[in-house]
């Protein structure tokens, strides 16, 4: 359409201005004849171009859709932009005898940065009511290693209430070593599954199983890397496994192009939303075994991070998965937010959950 319009405008300019210039040259003494001819040619050009232009309403709708798309893409790119305020809590003389850990010595608060771009996106920390409304009737799968398990805990704490009696049972069941977990929140018809899948091949098998069964969750949150780093310790192999995973995810949820945004969901009209939990910053001196300190060095960590980027599995690299930037969160929260250099304060995973929920609002065209 745009090509036809451009061609039509070019032809119109040629038809309009060339004869007018020639007429002006030869009929400069006959102004009435000149302007009559110019008017005739202008009317002819307008009639000629009419078929190439859509209605005004179509133009407005087209421009609006482009603006909305660009705003959504911009906000997805900004959703991980958060800042931390970590400061010591007031301590009394009995603070060492009340069973508190080092994590309790610091107060940790976070929020989105106050830049113009981020403020325009109107990100928000959702409460239990908002989350229940957003995830009502959803099937949510969280798959991966211990980082994914903490994300599952934070999400359920937001839905059920972190201090509720139900969460006591959830913590006990969810943290059974290397096991899966499933819960149905009957009040809102939401099913949450945690799948222990510490290797990328485990995640790949999970994705393929959904395709084979033709049953697809509404939201999938996955992440891996730490187990591969410790037990395989080969960043190149890690990257290859991620590329294989990406190929199957793209079959499950095709990567949307600009023209496809807003026009239905994933496969067969479903709207399926997928997220990747980034690896945390590892503080080598705080790791609790010599094997971890040797195999999970800063150099190896950076090699794995580079392989993640090169796999192009993340949306920011042209892939299908929206990043939950735990790397950034842990770096900015700092060593005050971890006991073992690998697993971090619940506030970090709470931030990841809120980032996911805000991205989900953008992706699903919803407001609260």
From TrEMBL:
A GO BP annotation: xylan biosynthetic process
Annotated compartments: Membrane
Keywords tagged on the record: Membrane, Transmembrane, Transmembrane helix
GO cellular component: Golgi apparatus; membrane
Positions of transmembrane segments: 6-25, 32-53
Protein name, per record: Pmr5/Cas1p GDSL/SGNH-like acyl-esterase family protein
Organism, scientific name: Brassica campestris (Field mustard)
